[in-house]
Amino acid sequence: MSSTRRRKNHKSLCRGGGNAVLCGFILSACQHFIPEAKSPPPPPIKEIDSRLETNAAPLRSGNGLASQNPNMAQDNSDYLEFPHSLDRFFQALATLEGGAAKRDVLITQLGDSHTVADWGTAAFRRYLQSQFGNGGRGFVALGKPMNGYIQQGVRGDMSTGWVTERPKLVQGQWAGDGYYGLNGMAIKTSRKNASAWIDIRVPITSVEIAYFKQPRGGQFDVLIDGKVIGRVSSASSVRGSGFFPMRVQRSSCRVQVRTVGDGEVRIFGATLEHTYIGITVDAVGSNGARVTTPLQSNEDHLMEQLRHRNPELFIVAYGTNEAGDDVPIRTYENRLTELFDRIARSVPKASCLILSPPDRVKKTPEGWVSLPKIRAIMAFQRRVAASRGCAFYSLFNAMGGAGAIRSWATELPPRAQQDGVHLTREGYALLGRRLAFSILRAYGAWRMAHGLPPRSQAPVSVAEWRNLNYKNNEHRELTLLSQ
């Protein structure tokens, strides 16, 4: 990473409209700025092979015996396919690393419960930010749109009276108006003095609240640590997205909205950014989501949301829920193709990456077996990746293939939960680091192919990252996430 850290131009916060006039004086909301801790970057250690992974503390099986899990993929294996599809993303990284970037390099991941938990994306985010700088936390929901919504560095809640608006299946048909925001779920209410908030536990310098503009839309106040800093009207003659930007310079803060009660208010979420240009990673989606879920959003609305975020890399991570249903594979393949066509129309310059589902097992009379549909899903994901110019990464293979999730569940401490579907924070974090490491290795090869000098800071391997960080900041953050 360049030794000179470039600051963002916060004039970009004022995107026009009636709320832009507030940009000049909102700094008073959070007075006592605590600057970002300038910890040194990880040492430029050369990439090592998998022997360091086995030199780490041995994993233990459920019977307490030390074992090297045969289903444990080593961190020198690479499961990233079609890396040439990431050329534009790599160019953005090179521009960032060279000190010429004028904005963050944004990665937006859209997926199901694996993504929403943010344990894997948090580790992915931290790994890349350790290499290229912290551009901010990214997009998060405001309030608590569903149980189990966990995001690094923020905690949300809300008063009674709010309901979550998201696509729903009713008697086999999708229901909803299609205006759900980037997350695919929004909170709404018509009550007076209904409040929703997030407590931010990471350093930020700006917040942007995304909301729904609609006929007869209500007003809401925006508060920082209990102080009203502006009132927003969501009334509009046409339906669309609204964005309310503000500067908040503090290492922790409560951002809150409170309704006036003169009409429906619908909140999509908030974007949290940092002064310095670097990497930002959005983890968006909802529990139980399938690739068909984002297609239930109004297409113009989804395109508007994507264009506003304008990521350099868009990651799509579905397949776990599809593996357990009886919908034909061809249907999902068509839907995935349709989703990427919409993404391409929205952000045509963004690189794209498809993540396979991790392993999923079910119990049978013969024992625990991986769902056979997973391999069929990965096959069509590869086909779509190849046809739409996207990279592909197999989480299934990265964790060890068929049966790996059951082996992970019997380890002490376990890296997978007992349901045969979800991982623990340790398991998700390991896969997140492995994905980041594979991307950085491909980026290093891209630099060589384009005649650029080797990176001054070599990517730290998964094993080294664990040894350097697990007992310190990352363990602390993951513990907070589990609370």
TrEMBL record:
<feature type="domain" description="SGNH hydrolase-type esterase">
    <location>
        <begin position="262"/>
        <end position="430"/>
    </location>
</feature>
<keyword id="KW-0472">Membrane</keyword>
<dbReference type="InterPro" id="IPR036514">
    <property type="entry name" value="SGNH_hydro_sf"/>
</dbReference>
<dbReference type="GO" id="GO:0016788">
    <property type="term" value="F:hydrolase activity, acting on ester bonds"/>
</dbReference>
<protein>
    <recommendedName>
        <fullName>SGNH hydrolase-type esterase domain-containing protein</fullName>
    </recommendedName>
</protein>
<dbReference type="Pfam" id="PF13472">
    <property type="entry name" value="Lipase_GDSL_2"/>
</dbReference>
<dbReference type="InterPro" id="IPR013830">
    <property type="entry name" value="SGNH_hydro"/>
</dbReference>
<feature type="transmembrane region" description="Helical">
    <location>
        <begin position="12"/>
        <end position="34"/>
    </location>
</feature>
<keyword id="KW-0812">Transmembrane</keyword>
<keyword id="KW-1133">Transmembrane helix</keyword>
